[in-house]
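Reading group handout, session on sequence-to-structure problems. Before we discuss, look at one worked example. The prompt was deliberately terse, the way you'd type it at a terminal:

> structure MHD domain-containing protein

The input record follows.
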Amino acid sequence: MVASAVFITDLQGKNIISRNYRGDVPMQKALERFQTYLLETTDESKKPVFHVDSNGDSYIYIALSNLYLCAVTTRNSNVALILTFLYRLSQVFKDYFGTLEEESIRDNFVIIYELLDETMDHGLPQALDSMILRSFITQGANRMSEDARNKPPVALTNAVSWRAEGIKHKKNEIFLDVVEKLNLLVSANGTVLHSEILGAVKMRSFLSGMPELKLGLNDKLMFEATGRANQAKGKAVELEDIKFHQCVRLARFENDRTISFIPPDGEFDLMTYRLNTHVKPLIWVEAVVEPHKGSRIEYMIKTRSQFKSRSVANNVEIIIPVPPDVDSPSFKCSVGSVSYLPDKDSAVWTIKQFHGGREYLMRAHFGLPSISASDIDPEAKKKGDNAWKAPIRVQFEIPYFTVSGIQVRYLKIIERSGYQALPWVRYITANGDYQLRMA
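And the output record:
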């Protein structure tokens, strides 16, 4: 990647802050070309990368809130890397200023110039970790001593750039959360049209020194790589689209599927994964709707938990769409409570704790106005019908449970001083885009 210049503009393309790294791009002309592109190109035709034939410059930009972050290059550069740099740079700004808005950019232009100088050098990306940058670029009036100013931060010269040296904690602990979200779409006849599991292994590390961790999962490919495929017997999980934090030694993982790493201090996502697999609905919902023209509409909702009885789903919300013009709501349910949200055209059935293997019923009754706009205007009728025939949505969270069956087999902590550390592991399954269509 070689970016000649980076600048931040408002939505009209007016320059707020710019930095010319290589001096091979006339900044004023570059800004004018970018502004012309924004103003003269329709929204449908705008692309995040465009090329100016007259001088061979390429513009790569991203839109965030009421700003544009744009990079200009005169070479055949890696566009994906430049886009990644712009997104990482925007995250650094958010970490520093809380929000990335035009006002926050103008209020902090001195620090932004410092950040632009440290995150890129002569068109090549450098440190883009907020924790490292904060060690020598501060927002307050504190100034580094002369000795410290003459030396680069240890994290920049260290092989482990994401972790500073000399970290000490009174109590050495590490918390590991395996969080899975279930995306599900079920047709009106009960057929699962789409199911997908999106998982993440989240960590909070409070370990002293420079510890090395090894994490073992019931990964199918790991069992095969170590010649223990016969030991798995259905307990192994085949993970897809695995993405790791930069601290993980990828060569080691590719070789024997061992997840070995020196963790950053604090909170981070160690890895994410996906499973495109058939999953039966954890919480099943059936709806029978009986509309009585011009007078009322009645719902009978039956829900059933289809997971083991020892598990409990917390804070379950079953969101049922209703016509936009109903009134006089009344509800009866065998458990929980029901509320009508007129601003969202829906009724919400809330069950605080939904034990596995249980089934509950809810009846809802709404009045309908005798004469409504939908009786007169066919378009209003069509719009209203589509609104209340939207899918039922379900929200939930099941602790100590993973829908994929992934398990942490071990978490080893190795540190030279040999201190004892406490690893804590927790599993959580929650809803993602979880929808069941009504008849």
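Points for discussion. First: Confidence is low (pLDDT under 50) at residues 141-149, 371-378, 380-384. Second: The first strand starts at residue 5 and ends at 10.
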